[in-house]
TrEMBL record, chains A, B:
One Pfam family per UniProt: TetR_N
Record PANTHER family: HTH-TYPE TRANSCRIPTIONAL DUAL REGULATOR CECR (PTHR30055:SF146), HTH-TYPE TRANSCRIPTIONAL REGULATOR RUTR (PTHR30055)
Iron-sulfur keyword on record: no
Protein name (Swiss-Prot/TrEMBL): Transcriptional regulator, TetR family
Residue ranges with Low complexity bias: 1-15
Location of the region described as Disordered in the Swiss-Prot/TrEMBL record: 1-23
Superkingdom: Bacteria
Species, as recorded: Actinacidiphila glaucinigra
Domain HTH tetR-type, residue spans: 23-83
Gene3D superfamilies documented for this protein: Tetracycline Repressor, domain 2 (1.10.357.10)
DNA-binding region(s) in UniProt: 46-65
Keyword check for DNA-binding: yes
Assigned keywords, A-Z: DNA-binding
Alphabetized GO MF terms: DNA-binding transcription factor activity; transcription cis-regulatory region binding
Length: 239, 239
């Protein structure tokens, strides 16, 4: 992900300069919306109620966000930016080069960053799973957050010491994102304290994933790797 | 799946005896509900409206189904039974023993059987994706339909000529069901005519799956197979 230029940063991301007033208003509206979505449910919260609760005019709220869906997109973008900020040091600095360790760190950081939104996610999940919704991760509106998430996995990979089949390397960040989505769905359904079951699942699957990737260099698996690559670009990531 | 005894068969399944009157009433209520769900949406359809439209008393409707959720469970069960009836000959009789061919046949049969419900599935999907809902495939209420679906994959496997690692064989039907769920989600989102993209995806992934399974016997992959088996029983199928 590129560094967000000052003035467009979604809210207070650690390590970015203090945002100007318009950004503070935008962040306030977003935070108010998130709170109301959680308290009243997404379906029952109106733009009018969000504006009132945030102490801004309805026109002002619409100036920043075209509607409720865009507020959720704002939430996706913020979550992606917070995640990126949390793992930046590990991804770019001299962090561990072991792929399993890198993947585990990044996934655990996501669970930490997303922790305040767990309840919201559970009640919200069904909207994102609606194929007709712009809130689906595959909708055009979600592309920026999707790209940000995938680019984190590009950096997990590029800073690691793993050697993978060249053809696989092309689609690996997308495969890793799909793994992340699987974990996210598990996390949404997870009612264990502090979602510790999801944490254990990540601790188990990150090394397994790295192990499977190391196998991809074997000639025996070459045709399978090629077929997976083609399937992904033909059926899933056609953008 | 066991043969449904007469009198408990969910509606008119080909190859089963003509159901008694109570079963006809049950099927009528179920069909009416499905139609109303499709026409008015699941959320807006009441038990009262279903009873009225089916020409039965509200009390009678509740005699057969405890509520709307149970009607959807009835739909799941019916879909599973129709699917089973459609593939019975292939699974038990002298059908193709090639695993890829068997899997392709079973998956294509599912798409054919589910065709009339595609629109309903699209509008309904978000309810099934709600973790709190009894309509989730992992809810206790869904276990009969889940068991029926998994047992179809047991028969896909047991009649095939494939030799797989013994440890993998234990969890393979569950893995194949997860593959089916992936295809179902793709199908829900698929807007191509007659969901032909999903059909092509099945035609590509069924042979790929069989190919991956054949590899599972290699000693090299043994630890990975073992770990996948343990993860499935620890994190997903704890019943």
């Amino acid at each position: 992900m590129e560094e967000a230029p000052p003035g467009t940063a979604p809210g207070a991301i650690p390590g970015t300069p203090r945002p100007p007033k318009s950004e503070q208003t935008r962040a306030l509206i977003l935070e108010t919306a998130m709170r109301l979505f959680e308290e009243r449910g997404y379906d029952k919260t109106t733009m009018r109620a969000i504006a009132k609760e945030a102490g801004v005019s309805v026109g002002n709220a619409y100036y920043y966000f075209d509607g409720k869906e865009h507020l959720v997109q704002g939430f996706y973008d913020r979550l992606a930016a917070e995640h990126e900020a949390a793992v930046r040091g590990i991804l770019d600095g001299g962090g561990d080069r072991d792929l399993a360790a890198r993947l585990l760190t990044v996934m655990t950081a996501w669970i930490d960053v997303a922790r305040p939104y767990h309840q919201f996610a559970a009640q919200f999940f069904k909207n994102a799973a609606d194929p007709a919704s712009p809130l689906s991760p595959f909708s055009p509106e979600s592309h920026p957050a999707l790209d940000a998430a995938i680019s984190i996995h590009e950096r997990v990979l590029s800073g690691s010491d793993i050697k993978v089949d060249a053809e696989l390397a092309e689609v690996l960040p997308e495969l890793m994102w799909m793994y992340q989505m699987g974990i996210v769905v598990y996390w949404v359904f997870d009612h264990s304290p502090d979602t510790e079951r999801t944490r254990r699942l990540v601790a188990r699957t990150a090394p397994l994933g790295a192990r499977i990737l190391r196998l991809s260099r074997y000639r025996l698996l070459r045709p399978i790797v090629r077929e997976i690559r083609e399937l992904l670009s033909e059926f899933l990531f056609r953008r």
